[in-house]
């Protein structure tokens, strides 16, 4: 019996020695680690944008003509009121002259309608009334004379009746002439004459506007950043000739994908980067959110406006930039790399380095950004967590490790 227990004891010792040797001699898991620290934690979203002046002035050729003279160059900063460009205005002046003639004709027609005819018509009407009045007076005189003669039997009753008929005819003619002189034109004819004058005046205003556009003056003190014209060059109607703006007052129009729109709010801080000047950055804030989603290239986006903080005249208009909006900002957040976070059944945990092995620790977190995760509970500043292995093996609790930073 004692020999049996001896063999059992020896076997137990051998197994213990084997397991201890295996544990001590096996390879340790190479683990990348990171420290939990307090730092500035920002949650951002980035997308493309385009620089534009707050107020942009564009000038187009109002008609097909030639460029007569150019008095500035692209890139010039010019004072308000400076003549920039002059177009050939012969055709425009001809249109103005024709429109002015049409206005005068329409005005004369309206005057005639509202004053019962032209001066010649009024004179002719007065002459006709005078002639009809004389004829009536003569008919009245004849009737009076025949009436007296008929009383003495010197005139027949038929002659008196004929004289009375002539008087009635003369009176009717006079009444008609006087009525025509007072109401030569109907209300409808007067309204049509007024409408014709309104149309003629509108045509004149349009012609004068076109003529005025043949001379392009600077509306403000600003910079000419587009000038597509040269002396004697042909300019078709509607061609963009000049663009200018105050480049001290610019903004950025950002294009954000539809899923990100719900995270944006007015007042959020914005950082602008331009590839042409990688060592520079510009700052601003969201001033207007999108009111609809539109198609931009191949994307469905919402357009936001970014007001720049300060005047930065070295950010050129129409340049493509990167717009980064700070959604959230925690100036002293306890955080760790996002690679250290794990999730199981809706709960978050990390593998904390405890001595020379890993320990699973449950944590609660805030809103992570692309690289960092804010820690609300479960870890303390200075703790070390595993972010992964260098040999592709999974992280496990209780496994001996070798830290690789």
Describe the structure.
- This protein has 405 residues and is an alpha+beta fold.
- It folds into three domains: 28-55 and 246-405, Beta Barrel (Elongation Factor Tu (Ef-tu), domain 3), CATH 2.40.30; 58-85 and 216-244, OB fold (Dihydrolipoamide Acetyltransferase, E2P), CATH 2.40.50; 95-208.
- The chain has five helices and 22 strands.
- It has helices spanning 2-25, 90-114, 119-152, 157-182, 187-213, and strands at 29-35, 37-53, 56-60, 65-70, 77-78, 83-87, 215-217, 222-227, 234-235, 240-245, 250-257, 269-273, 282-288, 293-296, 299-308, 320-337, 342-344, 347-354, 357-365, 372-377, 384-389, 401-404.
- The strands form four sheets. It has a six-stranded antiparallel beta barrel with strand order 2-11-15-13-12-16.
- 20% of the residues are buried.
- The mean pLDDT is 87.
Itemize the secondary structure elements and their pairings.
Blueprint: H1 2-25, E1 29-35, E2 37-53, E3 56-60, E4 65-70, E5 77-78, E6 83-87, H2 90-114, H3 119-152, H4 157-182, H5 187-213, E7 215-217, E8 222-227, E9 234-235, E10 240-245, E11 250-257, E12 269-273, E13 282-288, E14 293-296, E15 299-308, E16 320-337, E17 342-344, E18 347-354, E19 357-365, E20 372-377, E21 384-389, E22 401-404
Parallel strand pairs: 1-22
Antiparallel strand pairs: 1-21, 2-11, 2-16, 3-10, 4-6, 4-9, 5-8, 6-7, 8-10, 11-15, 12-13, 12-16, 13-15, 14-15, 16-20, 17-18, 18-19, 19-20
